[in-house]
Amino acid sequence: MTRYPRILLIGALASVVLSARAEDGLSQTTVSFYADGKPVGGMIFAIGAKTGISAKANHAENDKTSQHLTGNVQARVIPDGGQSFILFGEDVVLSSAAISAERAKAVRDLEAMGATDQLYRGRAGNGDLTPDEWKQQTAIDVANTKRLAEIIDAFGWPGLRFAGAASQTAFLVVQHADNDTQRKYLPLLRDAVKRGDARGDDLALLEDRVRVFDGKPQLYGSQLSGKPLKFFPIEDEAHVDQRRRSIGLPPLAEYAQMFGLTYTPIR
Question: Where does the signal peptide begin and end (predicted)?
Fold first, then answer.
């Protein structure tokens, strides 16, 4: 049985104690910040973490799993086994929801895949592995892709809100999958980035990789090749920085510096 949060009104202030937790401990606490009714930031704690939160605000509304606090919000957060810290803002939502065993397993599997994805390829910075090592890494990649497909079929794209830091593994697995798999899941990653649930640099890499493979000019300038290095052709290059900015990436000139290159934007 889940114990739901309580609200106690004290004068003009609302004091909130967040304490939702499933009997098996599978719950997840989230803190979300809003501006003009839109989410602008947040924090996601690990599934099962015993996170303690107490908060005060001018106004508070709650349902079975969350509290919406507005006006001079001040909250103290105590992570599982960690030191407490203070949050403050004007429009904050605190939530603690029970997580199914299936979802918890999916997140644990994503975390495990993050390690196996780099089991062999991570041993050589330049990617030089023996044929046997590549054979074993390829077998791992195939198994990871199969499990990721099962997770996506069950839950959709496992973004930040679903898996926290482990969401990065979904991109890594797709990045190392065959091109058909990359093309299949690219629209899901696009949608996740639009709703702030995935990283823009991951989208740029996957979008450009698929386009280059298909013989099309890239959109974000993430793909380089050759000796000396040079960018693959870029579609509408005069607006590449505008596209990069739209998904949270720095100008292409800054990206080029990472490879020791000088890039002059097209005007």
Answer: 1-22
Q: Evaluate if pTM is beyond 0.70.
A: yes
The residue type found at 157 is: W
| Mean pLDDT along residues 44-61 | 86
Burial 203-231 (b: 16+ CB within 10 A, else e): bbbbbbbbbbeeeeebbbbbbbeeeeeeb
How far is Cα 143 from Cα 120, in angstroms, rounded to an integer?
15
Residue with tokens 């199969």, as numbered in its chain: 146
Would you call 266 helix, strand, or coil by DSSP?
A: coil
Segment 38-53 shows an average pLDDT of 84
- Buried b / exposed e over 39-65, threshold 16 CB at 10 Å, is eeebebbbbbeebebbbbbeebebeeb
Q: Which of 16-25, 38-47, 125-134, 242-251 has the highest mean pLDDT?
A: 242-251
Q: What per-residue confidence (pLDDT) applies to 213? A: 96
What is the rounded CA–CA span in Å between residue 246 and residue 252? Answer: 13
What are the domain boundaries of the chain?
6-98, 101-257
- Helical H segments across the chain, by residue range: 101-116, 131-155, 160-163, 167-175, 179-194, 200-213, 240-246, 252-257
The pLDDT assigned to 208 comes to: 98
What's the pLDDT at 9? Answer: 33
CB 251 within 8 A of CB 265: yes
Distance CA 69, CA 91 (A): 6
Q: 186: how many CB neighbours lie within 10 A of its CB?
A: 17
